[in-house]
Design brief:
globular, 3 domains, Alpha-Beta Plaits, Gyrase A, domain 2, Elongation Factor Tu (Ef-tu), domain 3, alpha+beta, GcvT/YgfZ/DmdA, methyltransferase activity, six-stranded antiparallel barrel, methyltransferase
Length: about 425
């Protein structure tokens, strides 16, 4: 009969953890953008967030002052994580006209327009900017990734669709001194760019595409370049902007500016159709303020039939509105009531606006509230007062967007500051 040998306790092997206690925390890999070496050097707050898998700054040095850099100087923001698609080929225009809401045949080379696209039920999949780089070459920029949808939609068209997010670096230069900085940096002819114009300018051994676009409602530009030119362009702008107050910023400041401009963010102010888990969370263009994009004169496009039917039969159930709220406490994610009793909607974004000197918000309301019924609206705010939350009911009124409108945004030629 065999016996199993048992070692004395003193001879038992010591079991050691594979990681030290400091290494046991959960780690998530984040991609770096081409501008990460410069951003890491400027980072003071260690305030990061996940933007499409990239490590992006929520703030860099002071979110309040970063906001004022947009409105009084010039702000440089890394938009490289923005999803970018290259769409080209003989049928590129026809394909995009079939895909998106606006008439792409009216978009000339060297121009950009803001657009959106829907599924066959007329629910918004995303919104974004469409750049016509040449007669048969486009760039589509958006918040979410849609490559499978775009490829499926392209079946039958002589067109090539590819994602170029990692290959193309991008910056937003926004604020009153942004034009002066580009001119000081030597981008000759940039003064000829009108709102939604784009052009190529030489830089290093290649070129940079500059468009007069942005997400702040201010004078501003967006710059696109191959990744190998990213750091040299950053340095060129920072050097040219020293006397014009250029500062790098994070998303928190940008988000405040976009709200003042009345601009919406996918999966923040509305849930995109591919991300919605509940059937009542999807939205049609008219329900999130994008009805102006729908061009029924151009023929068939994705969702056309459903949109027309919803309009004709009064099936539009929601409306996105701008609100002005009494007091100075932001009402972010507050419930909206009618006559303080009936719950009629929810605030998706809210700030006290330094430019407008108003307490402003975006809210999604159930029709007819915010549409034909806009009186006696209230928001429920919970404010911290001496270590205790107090429930405050504040009156709200529906107001037009944008909350802040700056003439310098559209002035041509742009003003100097």
């Amino acid at each position: 009969m065999s016996k199993t040998a048992v070692k004395p306790i003193a001879e038992q092997p010591t079991v050691r953890p594979l990681h030290s206690p400091a290494q046991l925390h959960f780690r998530t890999l984040r991609l770096d953008t081409p501008f990460q070496p410069r951003i890491d050097t400027l980072m003071k707050t260690n305030d990061w967030y996940d933007w499409g898998g990239y490590r992006a700054p929520a703030s860099l040095w002071d979110e309040e002052l970063e906001y004022f850099a947009i409105r009084s100087q010039a702000a440089l923001f890394d938009i490289s994580p923005m999803t970018k698609y290259r769409i080209e080929g003989p049928d590129a225009e026809t394909f995009l006209n079939r895909l998106t809401l606006r008439d792409v045949t009216r978009l000339k080379s060297g121009r950009v327009h803001y657009t959106a696209w829907c599924d066959d039920a007329g629910h918004v999949l995303d919104d974004g900017t469409l750049f016509r780089l040449a007669e048969t070459r486009f760039r589509l920029c958006c918040q979410e990734r849609h490559l499978p949808w775009l490829l499926d939609s392209a079946i039958g068209f002589d067109v090539t669709v590819s994602e170029e997010t990692e290959a193309v670096a991008a910056l937003a230069l926004q604020g009153p001194t942004s034009f002066a900085i580009l001119r000081e940096a030597g981008f000759e002819g940039v003064e000829r760019l009108k709102v939604f114009d784009l052009a190529d300018f030489p830089h290093g051994d290649g070129s940079v595409t500059i468009s007069r676009t942005g997400f702040t409602g201010d004078l501003g530009y967006e710059l696109f370049m191959p990744v190998e030119l990213a750091l040299s362009l950053w340095d060129r702008l920072m050097e040219a902007g020293q006397s014009r107050g250029i500062r790098a910023i994070g998303y928190t400041a940008l988000n405040r500016a976009r709200l003042e401009a009345g601009l919406i963010v996918a999966n923040a102010d509305f849930v995109t159709a591919e991300h919605a888990i509940r059937a009542d969370r999807v939205r049609m263009p008219d329900e999130i303020g994008l009805g102006f994009m729908v061009d029924l004169e151009k023929g068939y496009f994705n969702g056309r039939r459903a949109i027309v039917e919803a309009r004709a039969k009064g099936r539009l159930q929601h409306v996105l509105v701008g609100l002005e709220i009494e007091g100075n406490i932001p009402a972010e994610h507050a419930i909206v009531y009618h006559r303080k009793r009936k719950e009629v909607g929810l605030v998706s974004a809210a700030i006290w606006s330094p430019m407008a000197k108003r307490n402003i918000a975006l809210a999604s309301l159930v029709r007819p509230y915010g549409d034909t019924i806009s009186d006696d609206l209230w928001v429920e705010i919970y404010a911290m007062r001496e270590l205790k939350y107090e429930r405050l009911m504040k009156r709200a009124k529906v107001v037009a967007r944008p909350f802040v409108k700056l003439d310098r945004r559209t002035a041509s030629p742009p003003p100097e500051f």
